[in-house]
Amino acid sequence: TDLTITDPAQLRAELEQVVSQGHAIAVDELEEGLSAIAVPIRNAAGDLVASLSLSGPTFRFRPNIDDLTDKVHAAGMTVSRRLGWVA
Predict the structure, then answer these.
(1) Which of 3, 66, 68, 85 could form a disulfide with 42 if both were Cys (CB 3.0 to 4.6 A apart)?
(2) β-pairing, 48-57 with 34-42?
């Protein structure tokens, strides 16, 4: 299955969803059997300066996706706070 986004409106919608939920999840997008969760890292000014991601086999991610997403969010917040960001 080709999951490539080629329509600008579809890309905008996807990016809006990522911003709204505060993370991106990729399941079998880059490679079948591989999943990832990514969150933003912000500096003291609140600027997006990096991202933090967790990746692994899809069969391990699917049953734990909510817990893993919470843990990646927490780790991203820890790094951002250490850079001086206050939510």
Answers:
(1) 85
(2) antiparallel
